[in-house]
Structures are given as C-alpha cells and as structure tokens.
Amino acid sequence: MQPITLGGVRLRNRIVMGSMHTGLEGHQTAKCFDQLARFYAARAKGGAGLIVTGGFSPNHAGRLKDEPATMQTTEHVALHRRITEVVHAEGGAIVLQLLHAGRYGYHDKVVAPSPIRSPINKHGPAELTDAEIEQTIADFAHSALLARE
Q1: pLDDT grade, residue 25 (50/70/90)?
Q2: Is the pTM of this model over 0.85?
Q3: Which residues contact 115 (CB under 8 A, 6 or more apart)?
Q4: What CATH number is associated with residue 78?
Q5: Residue closest to 99 by CA, chosen among 130, 135, 53
Q6: Coil, strand or helix: which one is 23?
Q7: Which range of residues forms the domain containing residue 97?
Q8: 125, 112 in Cβ contact below 8 A?
Q9: Helices in 48-129 by DSSP H: which ranges?
Q10: Residue 57 backbone dihedrals phi, psi, to 5 degrees
Q11: How far apart are CA 24 and CA 32, in angstroms?
C-alpha cells in the first residue's frame, strides 16, 4: 500500500486496476462518458491508485468493435477530460490504453500487418500496406499527444 512514483507521476498506492472493456467506450457520447466517469471514479474512491482504461484505437481501422472507440480529435479529448477529472478528484491516477485491435477486431473490416486470421475470430484481416502501417504509427503518435492533453 506504499506510494510509488512511476514516470514522474506519484501514485498514492500500488493498486492497479487493469484494463477492461465496459461496452461504453464505443459510444462516444457525453451520456456514455458520464457513465464511464462514474465507473472509474468509484474504482478510484475504492482505493485504486492507478486505473488503465479500456482500449481506444488511434484510428477507425484499428477499432475493436463496430462502434469506434477512438482517440482522434479534440472532441474525444473533451470526453476523456471529464473522466480524468473525477478520477483525480477521488485521489487516483488514470492512463488511457491505446489499442489497435488488429486481427482481433470484432467486425468485418478487420485489418492487420498480415492476412492471417485470428483463431478466435471469424473475420480474416485485410493486409495493411506499408503506407497504411506508417499511417497507423503516425496515428498512434497523434493519439498519444491528444491523450496527454
């Protein structure tokens, strides 16, 4: 239960709530993000020192499901800011998980670096071109910058 500093961020304890997908991430509306804020605030209030969100894709192609849980715009930043504020108010810290679902996406427009289908997915991925891979890398960098806001 000792405090710890990670990457310059002081955590009140070493309790980490790992990432989980709540089903609300893809509905990028104020109502759903208010529900997410209450969900994460309750975990911080309950003692989690660090919370890792469910995955948010750096682009539409990398989404996990048909509903695009992404971090691409300043509008997305505003939705996430509310979550961050309430978690901080309860004494916790929170980190946004950036996730490209790749061949594990649950939709019929899955993309990945190779066309090899996941053994747990009925949809085989379309193979990304070199240019699309480079764009995905740039999208990750852009999303990371937005997440820091």
Answers
A1: confident
A2: yes
A3: 124, 125, 126, 127
A4: 3.20.20.70
A5: 53
A6: coil
A7: 4-148
A8: yes
A9: 74-89
A10: -80, 150
A11: 6
